[in-house]
From TrEMBL:
Keywords: Methyltransferase, Transferase. The keyword Transmembrane helix does not apply. The lineage of its organism: Bacteria, Pseudomonadati, Bacteroidota, Flavobacteriia, Flavobacteriales. InterPro entries: Diverse_substrate_MTase, SAM-dependent_MTases_sf. GO terms for biological process: methylation. Gene3D superfamilies: Vaccinia Virus protein VP39. This is Uncharacterized protein.
Amino acid sequence: MKGSMTWEETIKFIRTQPEYKYLVKKAYFEENLALNVERFRKSEEFIETLQLLKKHHPNAKEILDIGSGNGISAIALALEGFNVVTVEPDESDTIGAGAIRKLKAHYNITNLVIHEVFAEEIGFADESFDIVYARQCMHHAYDLEKFVAEASRVVKKDGFFMTIRDHVIFNKKDKEWFLEKHPLHKFYGGENAFKPEEYKNAMEKAGLEVVKELKYYDSIINYFPSSKEDIINMFKVKQSKAILSLDKKIGFLSKFSFIQKMYFRRIGLFKENVYDESRIPGRMYSYIAVKK
């Protein structure tokens, strides 16, 4: 069911609720806007993103940041020395263009220009940017093909369209599950997701060649705030819990590795099951596409 709050009202509300404290911190929704920026800049997600930017377009200077929200990505990129143009249709001081203006003034940034428009209607000149960057934004498109076509139009030849952390669903039932599990959708009803082929088809139709599809477990960009160590240790943790369970059943025999392996097989404990992204509602993907 669609919620009755606006996105800004939702964020203000969850800041007051103890059960959302972790989410507010990890999603960079804290009232202290500069603190959000500083934490984002140090995050493994942003560090990995910068590495991808340098790898695929080491000479990039002009970046369009689409759907910047409260400005953490736009400000972080500007502080890294990029010339940033940001588009954010929400005007609010909490999670919109107003927040970005506050941060721009706080950091005394001169290499950042703010526009309050939708991504489908950005209206900039053809081939204006080296990189078009969209963090947690493309899945909110009201017209996915138009969204991507505009991104493709304004990026330079051999430039890149980089989408970060977009929700992916595989079918109708999977989408219903994702919306049901999303912690904030019930408040504002604004969540959405597309199938991987829908994202890729939109990019190809717009003249972009997908050079990298990062699935959920492929990169910390997607599974953050979990760490790389968390992900690596997932299987070991599952094994340890299974062995403890086995020990309760058969005692000292559980110490023998061949018995453990037999037990793992019986309960279906395989790496491919542990790292099964279908068990993650609305798992996130990232894409890197080049304009040929």
